[in-house]
Design brief:
Structural class: alpha/beta
Order of helices and strands: EEEHEEHEHHHEHEHEEHHEE
Length: 292
């Protein structure tokens, strides 16, 4: 899964560079968010740095996906607001939000009998209208997204016939075809083998390098630290820490957020923080095992 040729070379690029944003484009301001009467986060304020590859980390059921749903306007805060380009995100029409923010949700269901090519083409929906039908630009966007995610050979296959990993790559292609400056991804590496996980994260890094703002929920702390430029650590619906990986990923924070004793050492390839779990039965003495 490699980035398409000409990633940032203008109108013919398969995945074009994002426009230069001004100011903070996306942030949460004093929001209380949850489901029905169950509050997940209260008084939550957090900003997504422009042009960052922000990764949200935290234990299961801590509010990571809830925050992502609020950022995408799928979940409305009962108090506070989500701000996009200086305005409450609820003030925009749905199609306008879809032109600015792409979303890969945690679980996606394709219509019965739809092919891979047709599903990826649905990513172009926000750009269609009464006066604008399918164009060569749409065709290039779909082809580029499928090439970037290595699903071109699956174009004529039915989505429901694919493996879990293949389907996940198709959904990523659909999100890429949408061509938004901001891309939200909830556990994008789910179902992918280790090779496709790394290839996808490298593709997202390429998108970030040409100006796109990415926000992803990841469970693998080492992937988060290696590929993310900005981390948000959440526990019990609250932000515990945020900032560059080398400031956020420490042994003390991992124990506080995940209840896991560990050592944090430099990644031998990138020098980014690398978490090495100690395990429950390791003591602070003997054969190189130390306290967190």
């Amino acid at each position: 899964m490699t980035a398409p040729t000409g990633l940032a070379t203008g109108k013919d690029a398969s995945v074009p560079a994002a426009a230069d944003p001004t100011g903070t484009r996306l942030h949460v301001d004093g929001a209380t968010i949850g489901y029905d009467r169950r509050v997940i986060s209260e008084g939550l304020s957090v900003s997504i740095p422009d042009r960052s590859f922000t990764v949200i980390v935290g234990p299961n059921a801590c509010g990571k996906s809830t925050l992502l749903r609020a950022l995408s306007r799928l979940l409305r805060p009962s108090v506070g607001q989500v701000v996009l380009d200086g305005a409450d995100i609820r003030s925009y029409r749905t199609r306008e939000v879809a032109r600015r923010i792409g979303l890969l949700p945690q679980a996606s269901t394709a219509p019965d009998g739809i092919t891979v090519a047709d599903l990826v083409a649905r990513g172009r929906y926000p750009h269609q209208g009464l006066l604008r039908q399918w164009t060569e630009a749409d065709e290039r966007a779909v082809a580029g997204a499928m090439d970037a995610t290595a699903v071109t050979d699956l174009a004529g296959r039915l989505v429901d016939e694919l493996s879990g990993g293949q389907r996940q790559r198709v959904w990523v292609a659909t999100a890429l075809a949408q061509h938004t400056d901001i891309l939200l991804l909830d556990e994008p590496t789910t179902f992918l083998d280790i090779t496709h996980q790394i290839e996808l994260l490298e593709l997202l890094t390429d998108l970030n390098h040409v100006g796109h703002t990415l926000v992803a929920v990841l469970h693998d702390l080492n992937h988060a630290a290696r590929f993310g430029t900005h981390l948000i650590a959440i526990r019990d619906g609250a932000v515990v820490a945020e900032g560059p990986p080398d400031e956020v990923v420490t042994a003390d924070l991992v124990e506080e957020v995940f209840s896991l004793r560990c050592r944090v050492v430099p990644d031998p390839v990138t020098g980014t923080p690398h978490v090495v779990p100690l395990g429950r039965d390791r003591s602070s003495t003997g054969s190189g095992a130390g306290a967190a």
